[in-house]
Design a protein that fits this description.
With 389 residues, the chain is mostly helical. Among the domains are: 134 residues, no CATH class; 124 residues, no CATH class. Helix content is 69%, strand content 0%. It is built from 14 helices and no strands. α4 packs antiparallel against α5. The longest helix is centred in the first third of the chain and has 25 residues. 23% of the residues are buried. This is DUF2157 domain-containing protein. Keywords: Membrane, Transmembrane, Transmembrane helix. It comes from Flavobacterium cupriresistens.
């Protein structure tokens, strides 16, 4: 199914590992350059700005091809505008195939053609159904994005696949079940939890290591979906919007007490399991979820003025950070504040030094100019006396 050269995929992974070892100081620059020279890798870019630049260039190329075909190839066909999205999607697929076979992966050019294929697929089904069948559009995008990810290992396609599948299931539950609106939050809770554990099982039994990043991405998104599905603010506002009875204030929802407990309990559980399992992605998600939980509470209950709440929140975060650093800074293993050599976390230390230097007006040390008087060269104990002037 993968159209990319698997040897080059393996070599790209080995090169990334070698670069991580070089940044951590385990191997030298000469060794890394030798490894990079000997291994044939895919044509890709890690610099996001360069990748965006090539994406814009690829989008211009894709749009030019589609424009040329629409002007000269299909102008004589009746109602040809209905056929155009299918042709544009085919152009995107052919371009993606050619670029992949030439070794382009996460380059920018391939992103333009793959995302263009997804966009035109949804547009084609929308034109065919005259925009009335939303479910068919989402099913088509789900299937095509899944195929594109399996074939090109495109992470954005994996993200589009999971989001489109989520919308498809949610729309089907809401439209075709009598009590769809009432059970939708609970269905999404089960769906998010099921996706998370299914991805964990896939990662344990994974035979194709090339799909690892996509599965980790979907697993992380499922954690966010699980939390948002039970967040009081999301459930209440979405329920009011879907029911059509949203006025100035959304109506109260049933089981509000359950959703309030869920809103604050799940981020704490995320934080606990992240620290226990040393899961960095879950740790960041827990921090964001905790912040959003307090925002959800304040959205309906303004206990304190904004400036007072922000001040108290900042003091609380400072106290937590201070005592956590004080407790962890001497630990050498497990959860520690020591710089991570592999992920190059000492950038924080460099940032700290820069902040201190800018705060106290410290300037970098300047080497003094060489003195015009030369010393040395003495053959005796004197400084520079050789018996001659």
């Amino acid at each position: 199914m993968i159209v990319l050269d698997k040897n080059k995929l393996d070599n790209s992974a080995l090169t990334e590992e070698a670069e991580a070892l070089k940044n951590a100081g385990f191997i030298g620059k000469e060794q890394f350059n030798f490894i990079k020279k000997e291994l044939l890798v895919l044509n890709s870019h890690k610099n996001i700005l360069v990748r965006i630049g090539f994406f814009l260039l690829g989008s211009f190329l894709y749009a030019s091809l589609c424009g040329a075909v629409s002007l000269f190839g299909l102008s004589g066909i009746d109602s040809y505008w209905k056929v155009l999205p299918f042709v544009f999607a085919a152009i995107g697929f052919v371009g993606s195939e050619l670029l992949a076979k030439q070794g382009y992966h996460n380059h920018g050019l391939d992103d333009a053609f793959i995302l263009g294929t997804l966009l035109n697929t949804g547009l084609a089904i929308g034109v065919l159904s005259e925009g009335e069948n939303v479910l068919s559009i989402m099913i088509a995008v789900t299937v095509v994005s899944f195929i594109l990810y399996l074939r090109y290992l495109h992470l954005l396609s994996a993200l589009v696949f999971y989001l489109a599948l989520t919308v498809t299931l949610g729309y089907a539950i809401f439209e075709f079940l009598e009590f769809g609106q009432a059970i939708l939050p609970f269905f999404m809770l089960l769906y998010g939890a099921g996706t998370y554990y299914f991805c964990r099982k896939l990662l344990k039994d994974l035979s194709e290591p090339f799909y690892y990043s996509g599965i980790v991405l979907i697993k992380s998104i499922s954690l966010i979906l699980f939390y948002l599905s039970g967040n009081y603010m999301v459930v209440r506002e979405l329920s009011g919007t879907l029911s059509g009875i949203y006025y100035d204030v959304s109506p109260e929802i049933p089981l509000a007490f359950f959703f309030w407990i869920f809103t604050f309990a799940v981020p704490v559980l995320y934080l606990f399991f992240a620290l226990k399992n040393k899961d960095r992605i879950m740790l960041w998600i827990s921090f964001i979820a905790i912040a959003f939980s307090f925002y959800s509470f304040r959205f309906y209950h303004s206990v304190l003025p904004v400036e007072v709440a922000l001040t108290l929140g900042g003091l609380l975060l400072f106290a937590i950070a201070f005592f956590s650093i004080k407790k962890l800074k001497t630990k050498e293993t497990g959860l520690t504040f020591k710089p991570d050599r592999i992920s190059n976390s000492n950038d924080f230390l460099n940032a700290e030094a820069l902040i201190i230097a800018s705060t106290f007006g410290m300037k970098p040390e300047v080497k003094p100019a060489d003195s015009p008087m030369e010393f040395g060269g003495g053959g005796f104990s004197g400084g520079g006396s050789e018996g001659s002037f």
